[in-house]
Amino acid sequence: MSANAPGHILLVDHSRGALIFQETILRRRDMRITTALAGSEGVAKARAEQPNLIIFGYDLFDMSAPEFCREIRGDDSTRAISLLLVADRDRHDDGDLCLSAGCNDVIFRPLQKPELDAKVERLTNIPVRRELRTITKIEVSLEKDGRYILGRSVNISSSGILVEVERVLPQDGPLRLNFYLPSDPKPLQVLGEVLRAEFSGPKGKYGLRFLDLSEEDRERISRFVHRIRSRELI
């Protein structure tokens, strides 16, 4: 398996015991695993090996986890790698600091295999885009637990949407999306889940998959995408 093949995970932690424990759990899956005992070593291996996912602790010996996140997100060659922080359950601020620095998700100790499996699956197995999609700028309102975040779409298809926002989106559970398609007076209100996150500069881009899209709404989006794509090809 090549270094950048699906299923390649890099583990970074100052504790050799933590690395051995995580590797033991993950070895049950069909994937390549490499390790690093310091943040600087993790950054170097990320650049050289291009893993799909980095799982890391908060104390990385020669740098903190937020610093590590900023190093990964600040380099064009590593910016797209998914990041999963392993944090102590009584230190929720650690997770918030890392999410603000570009981390994709957080898992708390003691690690539970089903939860770890689910997060690894979500962060390493991004579905191949088969649906026709188009670049478009649509104002989108994203709601989670009564909190609203405004964003703008980058592209859209009948199965999902890529949105750009200036705040960190919560990734634990679905969000409600509200938006209008251009020239369509009827609003779209659907649930979506975050599948991937990209960070460059002050804004983050989140790929969301629609969860409860009706056939009618799916057809509305498909017609819109085909109409815009046909114009682009003229």
Mind sketching the topology for me?
Elements: E1 8-12, H1 16-26, E2 32-36, H2 39-49, E3 53-56, H3 65-73, E4 82-88, H4 92-100, E5 105-109, H5 113-124, E6 134-135, E7 139-144, E8 147-156, E9 160-165, E10 175-179, E11 188-200, E12 203-210, H6 215-232
Parallel strand pairs: 1-2, 1-3, 3-4, 4-5
Antiparallel strand pairs: 6-8, 7-8, 7-10, 8-9, 9-12, 10-11, 11-12
Helix pairs in contact: 2-3, 3-4
Can you describe this structure in just a few lines?
The chain has 234 residues and is an alpha/beta fold. It has six helices and twelve strands.
What does this structure look like?
This protein has 234 residues and is α/β, with parallel strands linked by helices. It is 30% helix and 32% strand. It has helices at 16-26, 39-49, 65-73, 92-100, 113-124, 215-232, and strands spanning 8-12, 32-36, 53-56, 82-88, 105-109, 134-135, 139-144, 147-156, 160-165, 175-179, 188-200, 203-210. The strands form two sheets. A six-stranded antiparallel beta barrel has the order 7-8-9-12-11-10. The chain has a five-stranded parallel beta sheet with strand order 2-1-3-4-5, sandwiched between helices. Residues 1-6 and 126-130 have low confidence and may be disordered.
